[in-house]
Amino acid sequence: MSSDSEEGASEEELTAEESLATAREHEQDGNTEEALLCYGHALQIVVEAAGDETAAECAPYYYAYGDALMTSEDRTARELGEVGDEDDDGDAAAAGVVRPTSPGGRERPEDDIELAWEMLEGARVCYGKHPDTVERCVNLADVHSRLGDVMQANEMFAQAVTEYTRAHRLREQALAGGAAPSDGAGADGAAAARARGSLRRAVAAELCNIGRVLQWSVPPRTAEAVTHYERAHALVEDLRRENSPEQDEAELFELSEGIANKISELGGTAPNSAPARKR
Questions:
Q1: Number of C-alpha atoms within 13 angstroms, CB side, residue 76?
Q2: Which of 21, 70, 128, 234 is the most buried (most CB within 10 A)?
Q3: How far, in whole angstroms, is CA 100 from its chain's centroid?
Q4: Which pairs count as long-range contacts for 170-174, CB under 8 Å and 24+ apart, including other chains?
Q5: What would the 3-class secondary structure string for 108-158 be?
Q6: Which pLDDT does position 22 carry in this prediction?
Q7: CA terminus-to-terminus distance, the chain
Q8: What pTM was estimated for this model as a whole?
């Protein structure tokens, strides 16, 4: 038997957790098709073991598969040059968001996006069965944000606004919970500060997402878009003023400036960003 066959056979024998880890390794190595196969295999294993495709434990597997499909679509579009405003891409990337663009290049791009929607809807249903915790809020926010990406890719901007708004509310709810996901009783102050800072940046990212699809709506909802960008800018500046060693000042400054530029481009009054500080 060839080494390729042996590798395929061994991957079929992996547990759901092992298959998920293998999928992530393939994805990091740029082996998209192999990654998607492993994500699907991991989901199949956990669904069969649960005996219920809507079981709570299936949630992260649905999300991982749907997220990978959307990441693949975005990567393919970028390689083909099918991207929108470069400044929009930079703002979103700085905020930790992968912005979808028009799909293309794969054999069945529309089918892939449809499959991504099905996977993310499955994740939404399954996470809905989890206990009401900060971690559940964060996970559901991730799902709704990716559903917003799907709607944006399909140029369904009103629906995208709805999904991004749900994600924003969930992230605000997570912040109000007074803790960060996976912070156990023994977590030190620095780890808690990093986690809370990440949550706040995620809130800013969702505000940018909402602003972006509002400006792309037909007709454009420019004034509303500017308002959301302004809120995102204020939040980033709040993080900068705290001058926390757990936050990357250079990255936050770049993000703040990018959002301010976007506000100016849309006809708003660009807010002032505090001068960049050196550590």
A1: 21
A2: 70
A3: 10
A4: 170/137, 170/138, 170/140, 170/141, 170/144, 171/137, 171/138, 171/141, 171/199, 171/202, 171/203, 171/206, 172/203, 173/137, 174/134, 174/137, 174/138, 174/141, 174/199
A5: CHHHHHHHHHHHHHHHHHHHCCCCCCHHHHHHHHHHHHHHHHHHHHCCCHH
A6: 96
A7: 57
A8: 0.83
Task: From 124, 153, 141, 261, select the one nearest 213 (Cα to Cα).
Answer: 153
pLDDT of residue 245: 77
> What amino acid occupies position 186?
G
| Tokens matching residue 262 | 């976007």
Question: What pLDDT sits at residue 216?
Answer: 95
φ, ψ dihedrals at 183, nearest 5°: -85, 100
Measured between alpha carbons, how far is 13 from 250 in angstroms, rounded to an integer? 45
